[in-house]
Amino acid sequence: MKHRRISMFLVAGMALIITSCSKQQPQQTAPISVVAETVSNDAADLSTHYVGIVEEKTSTPVSFVGSGTLQKVYVEEGQAVRKGQLLAEMDATQTRNMLAAAQAQYDQATDALARLRQVHDAGSLPEMKWVEVQSQVAQAKSQLDIARKSLEDCRIYAPVNGVVGSLNFHAGSVVLTSEPVMSLLDISTVKVRVSIPEREISSIAPSTRSTVNVEATGRSYEGGRIEKGVSADAMSRTYDIRIHVGNADRKLLPGMVADVVLAPDGNRSDASAPLTLPVRCIQQRSGGQRFVWVADGGKAKACNVTTAQTVGNRIVIADGLKGGEQVIVEGWQKVGEGTAVKVSLSGK
Description:
This protein is of the alpha+beta class and 348 residues long. Helices cover 22% and strands 40% of the residues. The protein has helices at residues 2-24, 93-121, 127-152; strands at residues 32-38, 48-63, 68-73, 80-81, 86-90, 155-157, 162-167, 174-175, 180-197, 210-214, 219-222, 226-232, 238-246, 257-262, 275-278, 283-284, 290-296, 299-311, 314-319, 326-330, 341-345. Strands 2, 4, 7, 9, 10, 11, 12, 13 and 14 form a nine-stranded antiparallel beta sheet that branches.
């Protein structure tokens, strides 16, 4: 019995020692994993993506001067043509008959003039009759020229170099006067049309830098001069801009979709570019003061900031940061002042 009491005292003592040791060693909290972005002056951060549509530089409609039945078309859609190349012709049967009649009338008038010339030179032909014969020759010559021109107009030739954009008629169709048979597109250079929201249009200048990525060609192109529209779409409140893009290999075709990247402050160097952060990491206190969480020495710290304009999904930091700070952009919901953090840097 005595030995059992001693054993119970020993067990109680050991339990008391273990409990005492556990109270002396506080539980360690694991750092919270967060993603941070190093604040820097990077003009690329201001770039914004838009959807663009490739358009031809110019479109030239081609039509017959007169009306008639289309007899033959010598080109196909998408075919490259050169200036002066025969494109199509109408049925010229009636026009040839008119030319033959005009030629016969002219021959008759000139023959009459030749026979009466001797009489006139001999002084036996009244001057009025002589003038009348000369007038008939002139009229016949005019009708002959018109008939020849009408026959020529039964064919149309390419007025410029280009690519056949669309064929509106085929052989056998009746074509009316000046009705476009086809269009010729100049795609030596193209324009990429982009719709810009009205709140962003003022930040775009003719010299704004742009990159045009076209999945259909698998290439990226450097954009050139920008044309800005001055009329807004009534429904979407957007303005159209057109970016000039070189197309020496004719791979860019009208209608292709492009991913357009614009840098609204395209002439600014990285050294003078503003500090920007993702909009999602900007927090606001109850009093209206904005702040961000900064990872400093392995711990989270709140830093007050003043913000400026928003560009896409980023916002300009006007004051509060100097650059080089690691601002928490993911996982900030889980931290508080002094929270231990494990930082992974974002690639933006």
